[in-house]
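FAQ

Q: What does a record look like?
A: Structure on top, sequence underneath. For example:
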């Protein structure tokens, strides 16, 4: 382990974790969370859902396969920091185009290694997701706490990471390249209007792979814009922050009820539930990892899922909304999926598009395809 660039973490309760910096060495005020995935640090690093967060990786060695240009989940990463036990600065992977540290420095993502990440994870499980300051060795605890006490979590993450204009991704194209401009349309069996609240690119890839033309739209798109596109279905994406921070998106979905099949993932799941009158709440330390068991109540089967969220839907608030619970988390019985069969709307709290990760839930994209073709959610 390279012991240069001494850095430290100061938690909001005054706990200090010393270590050594890599990537960007700028100071960061962030929300502290953890992820238990054994692989996929690049996908985590580029997932917009981690905007303004410092992610503790419980797997001890991070960076050993470098960074490649094909597996990014966004073109502009917005995560705040990555906290690891040991950073591997010399990757071994024929696909690697840069080291993890080089990539993080390029995008001003702070890194700290040499931290006991297992202990820090237990701390988060006890304290809950909390404020953290990543800073240099000369910052005192008193100075760090004063900075954290005067800082509040942002509420504009979705507006920052959502696309600023419409773009189209077509089967057979690289959605990273089409993300900057509208591409020439071509005949596709189905057309999906996707509301981008911080969407992972693998969602677009998954829909393209099933033959869909995907028109990606900003988070605050108006209903008439979608209606003018005449889509076969509407998709609600994942994204960062509190779903209550995007009432414009909730109102949009409310006005689309019953007009088109709707499929939501993660934040999109929460937004769909809010649009029907349900409520959400913040979990103590969230769900982030690649091995969460979820039971499908429609089939009585258990899926191993990839998850990344801080908020969940209150099950008791679903009464009278018309939404029925379809999936539950077997670790804490939180709601993981709902549907409104009459409106052909359904949503999932976890990530069926996860890559790398379990593939148990990819059937959900095929289910969306069948519903757009006229199938029933009751089938």
């Amino acid at each position: 382990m390279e012991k240069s660039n001494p850095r430290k973490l100061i938690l909001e309760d005054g706990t200090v974790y010393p270590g050594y910096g890599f990537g960007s060495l700028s100071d960061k005020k962030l929300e502290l969370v953890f992820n238990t995935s054994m692989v996929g640090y690049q996908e985590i690093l580029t997932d917009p859902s981690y905007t303004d967060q410092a992610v503790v990786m419980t797997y001890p060695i991070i960076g050993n396969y470098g960074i490649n240009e094909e597996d990014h989940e966004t073109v502009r990463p917005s995560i705040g920091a990555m906290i690891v036990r040991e950073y591997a600065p010399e990757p071994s992977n024929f696909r690697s185009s840069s080291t993890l540290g080089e990539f993080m420095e390029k995008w001003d993502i702070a890194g700290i290694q040499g931290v006991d990440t297992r202990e820090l994870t237990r701390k988060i499980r006890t304290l809950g997701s909390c404020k953290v300051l990543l800073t240099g060795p000369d910052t005192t605890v008193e100075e760090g706490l004063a900075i954290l006490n005067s800082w509040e979590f942002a509420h504009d993450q979705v507006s920052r990471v959502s696309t600023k204009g419409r773009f189209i991704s077509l089967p057979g194209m690289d959605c990273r390249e089409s993300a900057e401009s509208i591409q020439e349309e071509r005949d596709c069996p189905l057309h999906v209007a996707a509301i981008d609240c911080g969407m992972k690119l693998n969602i677009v890839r998954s829909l393209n792979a099933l033959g869909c033309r995907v028109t990606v739209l900003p988070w605050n798109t108006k209903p008439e814009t979608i209606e003018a596109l005449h889509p076969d279905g509407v998709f609600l994406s994942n994204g960062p922050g509190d779903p209550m921070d995007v009432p414009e998106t909730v109102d949009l979905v409310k006005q689309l009820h019953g007009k088109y099949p709707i499929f939501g993932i993660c934040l999109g799941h929460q937004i769909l539930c809010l649009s029907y009158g349900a409520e959400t709440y913040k979990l103590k330390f969230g769900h982030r990892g690649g091995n969460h068991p979820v039971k499908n109540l429609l089939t009585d089967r258990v899926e191993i899922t990839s998850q990344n969220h801080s908020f969940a839907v209150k099950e008791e608030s679903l009464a009278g909304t018309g939404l029925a619970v379809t999936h539950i988390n077997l670790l804490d019985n939180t709601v993981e999926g709902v549907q409104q069969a009459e409106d052909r709307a359904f949503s999932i709290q976890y990530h069926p598009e996860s890559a790398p990760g379990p593939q148990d839930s990819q059937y959900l994209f095929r289910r969306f395809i069948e519903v757009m073709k006229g199938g029933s959610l009751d089938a």
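Q: Is there anything notable about this one?
A: Residues 179-183 have pLDDT under 50 and may be disordered.
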